[in-house]
Amino acid sequence: MGHECIFDKNLEKSKANFTALSPIGFIERAATVYPENIATVQGNIRRSWREVYQRCKKMASALHRYGIGRGDTVSIIAPNIPEHFEAHFFVPMSGAVLNSINIRLDAPTIAYIIEHAETKVIFVDKEFSATVAIALESVSLNTRPYVIDIDDPYWNHGECIGQIKYEDFLATGADNFIWSGIDDEWSAITLNYTSGTTGHPKGVVYHHRGAYLNAISNAISWGMGEHPVYLWTLPMFHCNGWCFPWTIAAMAGVNISLRHIRADDIFNLIRSEKVNYFCGAPIVLNMMNSADSVLKENIEHKVNVMTAGAAPPASVIAGMESLGFSVTHVYGLTETYGPSVVCAWHNEWNKKTPEQQAHLKSRQGVRAPMLDGLMVADASTLEPVPHDGETMGEIMMQGNLVMKGYLKNTEATQQAFAGGWFHSGDLAVCHPDGYIEIKDRSKDIIISGGENISSIEIENVLYSHPDIQEAAVVAKPDAKWGEVPCAFVSLKDTGNMISQEDIISYCREKMAHFKAPKDVVFDELPKTSTGKVQKFLLRKRAEDLSLS
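Above: the chain's sequence. Below: its structure in token form.
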């Protein structure tokens, strides 16, 4: 008792042996070790790591000269172009916090975010300037945000609405600017807003430590070596592109810009730039599976795909694997820096059939290398569920890959962290091998006649139908059963005549009859900008159907 530990005596932290973790240092290393390697590609514009690092330092200087520093928010609304990538470095270099705004939000929501974040400077790409201009009119801050236009040479539409253009503002910075590192790795690095399907979106605050660790976790869990060629199919505004701007800097890779997500552009860039890594929601993979076969030809190198954002049907994964692409399934939330769970592969699974492999890959998996805790448990008691693949509980995480909390929302933060775990709101089972598999969002589970029905289970069956392009299932109020499954589907252009009865019969052949949808609606599915189906809109439509 009271004995001094010999390993603490005169062994103190110092500049020589301790540095606060921050992903910003990755770009300095890339520029120092591989200065002439290409860092960003946009059409014919190719910049080396030396050039990009110099631009980031100069832009950080320009922000500093404008008066931006620690605790300030700098927002950006832009597609996946080099300026957006650079912002992930120059904003924190200035000491400020980066807020990357969803490009598909409406003006009132953008206005709310700018006001809630107390944005001092906002970078705006011309494609979104009209919406941002409307948003700014209703923002009530003491000081109107300083607007900097991104005048992309490859985009000829839209108007500049700001006080200055990106390159002109860059020119106001100093070439010899020395950016200082952080003292505390718990300091905020970015602010990301949830999709806000009910009420206002919540501001999720990331810290430097978590961003650093998840960037490395991405590389490890994907088996990514140095110099990957990464195609930006995943929006950078979504969990900071799952932290991949920092991952690609850490691995001194190549960032290939992509303004719009189209199958022809994706396949053409994979061929021309020898892209070997890209991320995307299942809807992106399904779009690629359904593309013209000519687009898929002459890809002779290995392409690695990381997918998340919604539980991917095994048939979608099987379709990508049949193209020769290697699919890694990950899972996470905005609150966990994007991917924090990975369906880690076992070599013995290579002996299984393609269908069996696809089913295994459709599970969410186990904790990523840098996640400290993961369990499926009873939300109230925190008692883990048995590993039987059947008992449902809530997915919970713990550790460095969990957000600091929600900005200006203490109550929501405390609720999310109840019991010392982050509560995801996703319902899952845990298999005997410890791999988790999502069965539903807690608000999406269908309770019919006292039985819990997983909408995802029905969707997996629907996706296996040869004529169905997309599917989503929600609860529809029912006088007898309380709720029944209602399916919304869009069809492939096969020319086949498919009826509601055909779809219901197909489902009844492959699952318990009480789980099969009672109604099928043929229509396009409403989605968020990250490809998630907006089920709250479908629930409203299903409710209207029950009243008609």
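The chain has a mean pLDDT of 92.
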